[in-house]
Write a structure and sequence with these properties.
binds 5-O-phosphono-beta-D-ribofuranosylamine; about 230 residues; alpha/beta
């Protein structure tokens, strides 16, 4: 019933009734795996802070000294190190890594400069919800040292690709790409810098699509907005 008289707010007190806060829709939980500087991680942290519909709920590195770990800590994000040198074999490392990932209850796993090849068992554990960013226009230049190889090949265009991770190394279906021109006076550093700047725009955009449930992998096909993607965005 009504509070008795003396308990009621004094006339004119206009005590604001706190409106019940409608809980914001829960954002997609994203775990990011790194091995190095973590500038792509930083781009994701900044995008989440700017209101994109995802949150970085955990960061895992296979290298204890990865500078990117400090970026997560500075942003108040829990970090884990699963040091591959501490495991007798790849299978046991991958099991521990998979358990560390799963412990964060992620909706999406992003490999951002993660320099380990994942076993089929681990990939299959997160199939359809694991992305990787690779510094080339896949399927060209799978593997390492992509900028140097692009320069050696004399290619006019280079760039970065975001793809679903499958058991084929750097071979999963490509979702989106960023293209940059190769300039005559480019060296590995200048070309890498030009690509990296575009990576920082590309990766958060694709993660947002996944968070908005616009993006999925069916079989080896990328579907975006309910239709199979004939070629990368
Ligand atoms: C980027 O070039 C990315 O494409 C590749 O590794 C580098 C990661 O850089 N996978 P960072 O650790 O995100 O700065």
């Amino acid at each position: 019933g009504l509070p008795n008289r003396e308990d009621r707010p004094k006339r004119g007190s206009h005590a604001k009734r706190l409106l019940p806060m409608t809980p914001a829709a829960p954002r997609l939980r994203v775990v990011v795996l790194i091995s190095g500087s973590g500038t792509n991680l930083q781009a994701l942290i900044d995008a989440a802070a700017a209101g994109q519909p995802f949150e970085i709920c955990g960061v895992i590195s296979n290298r204890p000294a990865a500078p990117g770990l400090a970026r997560a800590t500075a942003a108040g994000i829990p970090v884990r190190v699963v040091d591959h040198t501490k495991f007798p074999d790849r299978a046991r490392f991958d099991d521990a890594l998979g358990d560390a990932i799963a412990a964060f209850l992620p909706g999406l796993v992003v490999l951002a400069g993660f320099m380990r090849i994942l076993s089929d068992a681990l990939v299959n554990r997160f199939a359809g919800r694991m992305l990787n960013i690779h510094p080339s226009l896949l399927p060209r230049f799978q593997g390492l040292h992509t900028h140097r190889r692009a320069l050696e090949a004399g290619t006019a265009e280079h760039g970065a690709s975001v793809h679903f991770v499958t058991t084929e190394l750097d071979g999963g279906p490509v979702i989106a790409q960023a293209r940059v021109p190769v300039q005559a006076d480019d060296d590995e550093a200048t070309l890498a810098a030009r690509v990296l700047a575009r990576e920082h725009e590309l990766l958060p955009r694709v993660v947002s699509w996944f968070a908005q449930e616009r993006l999925a992998m069916h079989g080896d096909q990328v579907w975006l907005d309910g239709a199979p993607l004939r070629h990368p965005v």
